[in-house]
Amino acid sequence: MSDFPQVQVADLADDAAILDIREQDEWDRGHAPGAVHIPMGDLPARVDELAPFLDRDEPLVVACRSGGRVTRVLPWLEQQGYEVANLDGGMRAWHFAGKPLETADGGAAQVP
């Protein structure tokens, strides 16, 4: 994981475009307002949805709950041509930092 940049939650805008690779139920309970959701298992089939990120000057920031899944996804995304970075601490760090979260049902957000 040390080969990839670590992005701190405090360095991101509240509406930053983050690739959230958590499962649907995790996403539904609470996600960053500007995030793009593609569960880790769906990435190979849906990677084309990330094409707008290819030409950006900054890396694509990838997040899961706390960082475990990201370690498996970053090398693969890099092989596909993306400049990538890990959201240090994942969505748990986002939540604990008091950053905004949206939910599928409009209820109280949770990032267990």
TrEMBL record:
Organism listed in the record: Knoellia aerolata DSM 18566
Signal sequence extent: none
Keywords, comma-separated and alphabetical: Transferase
GO MF, one example: transferase activity
Pfam families listed in its UniProt record: Rhodanese
Xref: InterPro entries: GlpE_sulfurtransferase, Rhodanese-like_dom, Rhodanese-like_dom_sf
Name of the featured protein: Sulfurtransferase
SMART domains assigned: RHOD
